[in-house]
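DYW domain-containing protein structure dump, as promised
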Amino acid sequence: MKSAQFLTNTRRAISALSAYSVPTTQHIADTYIFQCNKSNGEACERGQVDDECQMFDKMTERETVSCGSMIAGFSQRNQLNGTQELSDALPARNVRTWTSMLTGYAKVGQIKEARIVFDSMPEKNVISWNAMISAYVQNGDLVTARKLFDDMPQRNVASWNSMITGYCHGCMMTESKKLFDQMPERNSVSWMIMISGYIQIHWFLQAWNVFAGMHHSDGLPDQPMLVVALSAAIGLRALGLVASLRSIAIKTAWESNVVVGTAILNAYTKNGRLDLATDFFNKMPERNEYSWTTMIAAFSLCGRLNDAIALYDRIPHPEQTVSSKTAMMTAYAQNGKIKEAELLFNDIQNPNIVTWNAMIAGYSQNGMLDKAKEVFVHMPVRNSASWGAMISGLAQNGQFEEALQLLAELHRLGKFPSHSCLTSSLFACANLGATEIGRQVHALAVKRCCQHNPYVGNALISMYGKCKNVEDVSQVFSTMGIKDTVSWNSLISGFSQNYMLNEARETFEKMPEPDVVSWTAIMSAYVQAGQVDVALQLFRDMLARGLRPNELTVTSLLSACGSAGALKLGEQMHGLLHKLGFESCLFVNNALITMYFKFGSQDGFAVFEDMDERDIVTWNAVLAGCAHNGLGKEAIQIFNQMEAEGVLPDDMSFLGILCSCSRSGLLTEAKTYFNSMCEDHGIKPLIYHYTCMVDLLGRAGQLSEAVALVESMPVEPDSVIWEALLGACKIHCNIELAERVAKRLFRMGTCKPGTYVLLSNLYASHNRWDKVEEVRVLIKAQGISKEPGISWIHIRNKLYTFHTADDTHDFTEDVDKLLKKYYGLLKMTGYVPDTDFVLHDVEEEQKQNQLLYHSEKLALAFGILSMPSGCPILIMKNLRICGDCHTFMKFMSTATQRKIVIRDRNRFHHFQDGWLHFSDSQNLPRLVCCICRFQSRAAACLFGRLSLAILQCCFLSCWHGCCLRPTLALAGPPAIFLHASSVSLVSVLEQARVSPKLEELKLVCGSPKKTHVVNDVLTFDNPKHPPAA
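structure tokens r here:
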């Protein structure tokens, strides 16, 4: 219908033109023709070509200007057929009609046709040349544009401005500056182009210098010039420059102008001076909708939603435009009030494309992608920002593949992606590790001449860095025309992600002006490399230079302190948070919780309780801390509190609670939570959740059930699950199942050194040295090297590292003497070295000597020598602590009257007063075995603080019963001490599935103040105050 009407209008216009003759004498400036041409021009500007055709038909007289307006109208509507027909029908065409045709083709990207028109022109003026140069510039062909510019017979200021504009749009500021310096004359547009070009690539200082040059050449800034100069001041974060520009605006009478005033207001808000912005806003003589939206956005970004609402309510109702409503809607969405944003969106009768885009972004920011997609699909018109908002929303919410599919759809439609589309797509490629797709996006950016844009260039560096393509990282950086601070920071991160610490440091040292992000990036690189001391020294250097750390800096250092076990440094960092004003920052507090739990400290609970705001990360951090420290009951309380407060647990929450139950021996509770995942919360268990359950069932001695769970899993079991099952076989001495599991691991080809060590340990504990040798031969054949055991301890903010049998320290002799002293003392009090953990077929005495010099024992001895009496000792170890060291630490905690905390590869172990302080579900069997071997009064005194409840719990646990069977047989008549008022030991053992002969059990009641030994059974009445040895 529209096509037919268009053809009709075109034929009428051509028919009317057939009677038209070009004046031969002079141009007739008839008032009637002038008015008609003016009306046609206005209709053309509005895109109302049909109205223009009707007015053209009614004109009794027409001239070239009339026809030129018609051609321009057709060109603006991309109706080039009509343009061509109308142009061809003209008996004589002048320069204007030719130029209109040329411009029409250029606008729709048909640059070849535009050049044909240009070459066919019988005569050309400077406007024609400028139009052709602009056509090449608009289509990104700067080489041809420059060649045409150089060939121009005559140039005006517009010619120079067109070419400079092309270089600025291509971020080629070096070429732009050279051309600018060669200009014979400049107008305000020339200065504006240069300043805007520098601002576009974030070279704010150069932009300001250009403005200063214009001002010093006696050029008075007009309204647009002041606005763009304020943008440069915003980029420099120079409040003094804003004040200078405000003074210039006052002198030139531009301050009262609403556009300039709003730009000053925006400068105050972007420089973080909301107080000055509010004062200036209240004094503005005139405000436009942008003034209101600027203040609303500023309040929103500062988290002051109530102030934003109050300001919005101050807008007179008739002046509440679509823009102000869109700003308020965005403020609601940014602050999590998505329902309020929806209500406001539905209240807008005719939302513009900016409003639709803001709603897409709002839904995406709140994780409501389905809603965002619905808005995107139903919006009447889309622009590049619409596609950018949707692609960005998908990428930021982890839907990386769908984001790339949407970019592909945009490309198939023949539309060019915006810078936002490209950066979001590169972010998606980086997270997927999709190097080849990333290269295609890179090629698309080059085709669009976007690779010089700093945002796109920085995204390319980040993408190649995460994809481990270091050569491409360096190449992109070296070819970037403009390298801003973000570019340097991205390069540092790219090197650090690929463990190229030296290159990262060299890049940091070469930076012209490193900012706080640069310092944070290089500190994080050293933290990632385990060089915490260097990271902390860099932090001190940054403070010395007067730079204020941000939240990410503090978070990185808190992580560093936690990873290194630097408790004192961590406490100092905690104190610094209050000075920096970060005590209420959510993710800083989350990092603080994690740090304290990494120290094995329950201060993480105190931080949690003091927090005014919590998110799901907060709850998960506490649950993970409970898991690492074996705080099963506390984890259950936290989980119940989380549900009571209406916080929905996610898969990480269930992982935390399952790990806590696993390390506390809470099998029944773990099964309940595991079943609740699917049934109550609709969360599908992942491989990690199954691993927790298999580990717990295995430790509980329910190996058959653990195997059944592995075989019935809906997902393919990985090596971690099989390794957990192998560890359970080691605990319960099930060689047959262990060999089956080991074979499965060998077939998977993912065996770690720990797998071979576990199997070798199991064989060694049963004196099957032939099998031990077979495992060693296999290890050698596979080229596998066992990771050496390393322990480290912080003493007065200095890190000391110890290897097994380490004799490289100056204090080795003192450590050796102290260990031998306590070794002898502990043997007298009942400590029996567990030589099952020595993997060599040597004499018993040699095995005991090897056990003595494990790295954690050396670190403990050094800690005792170096730290004040009674001071807790925190030791880190890269491998799991062996059973003998575990027992040794319990004895030492009593002998030295210290709390000893060891953090190994899996968890924390807290030793205090001769037993595992937080949870001993894993090692209570060994403790009871040790008690059962006591044959002396001194031994009983050492464990006098062990409560009956723990001992009873030990027997009641089914896996403990399995562990006690060989102990009872080896020990003969067991030496077990119990309080006189205790429950029957026989009933306890029966519940534990242990059935010793009754004559082997002798329970003797002692008097309240005496200790008795009858038939090798030791008893005393006051466990809290046992008699002296």
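The first strand starts at residue 790 and ends at 795.
lmk if u need the other ones
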